[in-house]
Amino acid sequence: xxxxxxxxxxAGGAGFIGSHLCRALLEAGxxxxxxxxLQTARASNLLALERHAGFTFVHGDVTQPLPEAITARAPGFxxxxxxxxxxxxxxxxxxxxxxxxxxxxGTVQLLRLAEQTGARFLLTSTSExxxxxxxxxxxxxxxxxxxxxxxxxxxxxxxxAAETLAFDFARRGRADVRxxxxxxxxxxxxxxxxGRVVSNLICQALSGEPLTIYGDGSQxxxxxxxxxxxxxxxxxxxxEGIDPQPVNIGNQQEITIxxxxxxxxxxxxxxxxxxxxxxxxDDPQRRRPDISRARAVLGWEPxxxxxxGLAMTCEWFAGELRSNGLPVTTGARAAPGRRxxxxxxx
Length: 346
Ligand code: UDP
Fold this sequence. Notes:
There is one protein chain. This protein is α/β, with parallel strands linked by helices. The chain folds into 2 domains: 8-186 and 225-249, Rossmann fold; 197-220 and 253-286 and 304-341, UDP-galactose 4-epimerase, domain 1, CATH 3.90.25. It has helices spanning 16-27, 43-49, 68-71, 89-92, 96-117, 153-171, 197-207, 226-238, 257-266, 292-298, 306-323; strands at residues 8-11, 32-36, 55-59, 79-82, 120-126, 177-182, 185-186, 211-214, 220-222, 224-225, 246-249, 254-256, 273-277, 339-342. The strands form 4 sheets. A 7-stranded parallel β-sheet has the order 3-2-1-4-5-6-11, sandwiched between helices. It has a 3-stranded parallel β-sheet with strand order 8-13-14. Strands 7-10 form a two-stranded parallel sheet. Helix 1 (16-27) crosses helix 8, helix 5 runs parallel beside helix 6 (153-171) and helix 7 packs parallel to helix 9 (257-266). Residues 331-346 have low confidence and may be disordered. Uridine-5'-diphosphate binds at residues 89, 184, 196-197, 200, 212-214, 219, 221, 257, 279-280, 283.
């Protein structure tokens, strides 16, 4: 990738995917301005980025008027990525009003900034716009099956509204817009308490705690390693002359949560105990991206096999737990098979 002519603004750049994106842009020689409210970010993500000379951090919340440190620099921005929003169901449901406003108010403010400055704009949307999908895999033309009243709606509908804003700006020629629909992404630099399935299961496995499976574990997801996701985002942003259409960014390998537990167990880090918890309301039963468009338009597809990505992620989490002074139980497999320790209302 050649670095764009001006700095890149990354809203949400201290978060999980955002910090990987900032690092990739900096390593390619870019100047990066990160705007983040540090709501769900890890402080150490930021510390690592601050070692790069081309990196500037601005503290601010996209639901509020943009800080002067951003508006004053705005004419120089060549690219604006919007990753500002909590993405873990536990975290985005903790303050649903803020989640909705982050997507709507935050996106419109950043789109207006792109309009004023001529910066190219990329919205990170989500597979959640498909809701509980009725077709598999999900292509971009599928309009989705989303509850507008349930506990996930603040995120799902917030992202749908953000897409609407982005495409209206594009249709009116107000901004050069890209929209990535990101499917479940995992990897190093997630929070220990993120609450999503990969980080939960890995932390539990490494700590010798029972693995929490919500429901009966037959629901599926398709997990994409973060480096692959970031590669897809940068390709989408830098692709010239692309139609303003959403593009799915995700891995096509669909597995059940029970199978995910099997893979983690086979890595030798998992304890043998499982505890079932109730399936959260509106939890989608199946999810798998159709990535034909990403392949055709971006020449992109994920390269990291799940087992390899999980092994790298486990290693990172083990280091993180140790550096937090927490015990790590590795290779804790006592006997073949697994014990079920509780039924917990699944
Ligand atoms: N899940 C689970 N155990 C956990 C956390 C999540 O079984 O400790 C399930 C959750 O119910 C969902 C899937 O794993 O079916 C993925 O959940 P996650 O929160 O990672 O992301 P989502 O795709 O639901 O946004």
